[in-house]
Design goal:
Blueprint (H helix, E strand, L loop, with lengths): L1 H4 L2 H5 L11 E9 L8 E4 L2 E4 L7 E10 L21 H4 L8 E13 L2 E13 L3 E10 L4 E14 L2 E12 L7 H4 L7 H7 L2 E6 L2 E6 L2 E4 L2 H24 L2 E15 L3 E15 L11 H4 L1 E11 L4 E12 L2 E12 L3
Antiparallel strand pairs: 1-4, 2-3, 4-5, 5-6, 6-7, 7-8, 8-9, 9-13, 10-11, 11-12, 13-14, 14-15, 15-16, 16-17
């Protein structure tokens, strides 16, 4: 896997390059009170039961190492680097950095949010030259269910403040775009209860109400309770289990990139876009793109704009938008600062 090979190349020529100079190793953990959920109740035997979810405390444990030249508009955020700064991500996604040579990021975060525990992993290694750029990365963002490896190699053409890149990217990803339950169950041919029994649930009529069991343990005392709280999860578990059996899928895509960067103390503009219009799947369950050019188009884009009107007033806009394998991923922020002297 690429994530295990990302840092192999530098060690092969460690004596010739000062690979770790100016890098930062960091670890941090933050803990805070979780969101208080709205009250929730269910009816039980002519009464009710409080089933309001009580969330344990949230936390974020991050550990990693990074080496990346800051752009002119980026300021050192604090005395300490935490690794989970939300406003570090925009320029980290740019293919064309602010310095030639090797740059890298390896970050592992263990997160609990509203009771859900997941990891966020980002590993990438990039070499930027005057005429080419190569980048290998591994992304596993369980918050948005996105996981893939990629190896990107492109030619680079620089014209003033513009950078144009052309090449190919090899990606290994989860089997997106396929839902196993659609092949397993055809609506109308069997009932919900028959499907539930195939998932290992059983039911029994008790005093005019259906009781549902899992491994002989009572889990629901009505159809409404079972279908609301358990049946959907059973389908999700089935889909996940079948998708895991398929393993990672491989594809090659043509990629063209554009980057524009202009900085002055009064304003700065940083815009980038990477377009992938053509793809070739190498496995049976590689993602199936649409027939039209628009349906096949994927992209990774972003913009950072800043304007200082005068010593007191400034405006900013930052955002990115990614669309891969039918998944839109985006974030944005904008506003103004006014300094009172």
């Amino acid at each position: 896997m690429i994530k295990y090979l990302l840092f192999l190349i530098p060690f092969l020529s460690f004596s010739q390059i000062d690979f770790f100079k100016y890098s930062t190793i960091y670890t941090s953990m933050n803990v805070n009170t979780s969101m208080v959920e709205r009250q929730d109740y269910i009816s039980i035997d002519k009464g009710y039961e409080d089933v309001t979810q009580i969330n344990p405390f949230d936390y974020n444990l991050s550990i990693g190492i990074r080496k990346k030249a800051r752009f002119d508009y980026e300021k050192k955020l604090t005395t300490w680097y935490y690794g989970n700064e939300s406003n570090k991500s925009s320029s980290d996604d740019v293919l064309i950095g602010n310095s030639t040579g090797f740059e890298y990021l390896a970050n592992y975060s263990l997160v609990r949010n509203r009771g859900d525990i997941f990891t966020q992993q980002t590993y990438w290694l990039r070499y930027l030259g005057k005429r080419f750029v190569v980048k290998a990365q591994y992304i596993d963002n369980q918050r948005v269910e996105l996981r893939y490896n990629s190896a990107d190699a492109r030619l680079r053409i620089t014209k003033g403040n513009f950078d144009f890149t052309f090449g190919a990217v090899f990606r290994v990803h989860d089997p997106y775009g396929y839902t196993p339950i659609e092949d397993f169950w055809i609506a109308g041919e069997e009932s919900f209860s028959q499907l539930a029994e195939e998932f290992g649930y059983s039911s029994e009529l008790v005093n005019g109400r259906w009781h549902w069991y899992k491994n002989e343990e009572l889990i629901a005392t009505s159809n409404d309770e079972f279908y609301k709280h358990y049946f959907g999860q059973a389908i999700a578990d089935f889909n996940n289990r079948e998708l895991d059996k398929l393993g990672m899928q491989k594809e090659i895509s043509f990629v063209a990139g554009l980057s524009f960067y202009k900085y002055s103390p009064k304003y700065w503009i940083h815009i980038w876009a990477n377009l992938m219009p053509f793809h070739y799947g190498l496995d049976e369950y590689s993602y199936e793109y649409g027939d039209s050019a628009l349906e096949s188009l994927e992209w990774d884009s972003g913009a950072i704009l800043g304007l200082k009107v005068n010593k007191s007033l400034g405006f900013f806009i930052e955002g990115k938008h990614i669309y891969v394998w039918g998944k839109p991923i985006y974030e944005s922020k904008f506003g103004f600062n006014y300094l009172i002297f």
